[in-house]
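Ticket #4471: structure export looks truncated?
Reporter: QA, pipeline team
Priority: medium

Steps to reproduce: submit the single chain below to the structure queue and open the exported record.
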Amino acid sequence: MLIDVIVPQLGESVTEGTITKWRVKEGDVVVKDQPIAEIATDKADSELPAPAGGRVMKLLAKEGDVVPVKTVICQLDEGAGAGAPSARVDAPSSVVGSPNVVTRGDEPVAPSQGALGPLASPTARRAALEQGIDLKDVKGSGDHGRITRDDVMRAGVDVPPRTEPPMSLEQRGKAESQMRAQQQQQVAPAASAAPAIAQMINQGGGFVPPVPGVGFGSFKVPPYRPKPGDQVVPFTRRRRITADHMVYSKIASPHVVTVAECDLQRASKLRETNKDRYKKEGMSLTMLAFVVVAVARAIRENPTVNARVLDDSFVIFKDVNIGVAVDSPDGLVVPVVRRADELGVRGIVRAIDEVAGRARSGKITVDDLSGSTFSVSNPGLKGNLFGGAIINQPNVGILRIGEIKKRAVVVEGPDKEDHIAIHPVMYMALSYDHRIVDGVAANSFLWRVREILEKAEFEV
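Actual output as written to the record:
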């Protein structure tokens, strides 16, 4: 019996995946749950297991193809060839070797016109929806004709070519003078137009954001001219996804940053006292773990920062799932520590070690990266004073911690007199989405995080 192997739902908001590698070929015999393909999405790379044992009859997509979720990409003959050596079975030439072929039922179709319509990235689909542009009218510049967000933006600002005869020098001079006069007249009312522009952005109409590498309005980015010694570095898939995410976040969320100074004297002593014990157990007791515990506790008392914006409302989440930014071979990823408010220091340390280890070894999964409700960014050993991080969508807040450095601080001694002491100090910067998080709520949350860390009343 033939079994269809489909691209599964690989995480929330994921609509498509790229087949990066086939682990099998037609005619191979596989067992149930054996990895048969590697699929990359805008969340992570995953292995696709065989739903049953049998012989691979047809591969309906090629490596590099971008296919929507729920698309049939392979067919297995269940039970066929059990215990027999693998043998290549030649498939019809109409299937094998036909580029970018997927199926809908029994009918082969091009993925560029698959179940979700024209082949386009998620950010391109979102931009087309916001701009009211039909993707069928957009010419894709990506691989296999894939439509990118830049393609959509260009389609939204394209104007028909001029057909009138060229102007004389005198006419051109008059036209330029008139244009300068109009621009000067528009300067004054531009400031008062800000509320209207904000309303247009909120309603998704009339606003055309700048296109990276192209420009905005009358401003155009000058073309790059190669020079000896220049190094052109192509975007990796993950770098392109990160770039799209960051641009979208800056446009969608009105970022506000507030900073707190935190005295880590007590927390540092607590860590020094217990770090060797944790090390013997194969775990690393870092200051990041204390920060995540403090953030989780503060969120319970200030839940507004644990939310996301909907179309005309917002939702405050029950669970506290904290994304912790860590580095990986493919770039920065944000694995999630789930229900962090129910974990103590030991539980947080173990959770961070596990997800960070999988990220660095390239074994991070979609589930590891999905479902964060708040994020914490750690710049590492070579961090600087502090920095305002870009919000990890669809979160409404991210806390970026800075370097820990010994500084002179004023403390109250046993004699109730002020003294100058040398303590480890760290700055923390909270970036929050001002659409739903007000300054009072944001400052109350950050103040509480600082208080918890300075008191250092942790069970380790």
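Status: closed, not a bug. The export was complete when the record was re-opened. Leaving a note from the reviewer for reference: The first strand starts at residue 2 and ends at 6.
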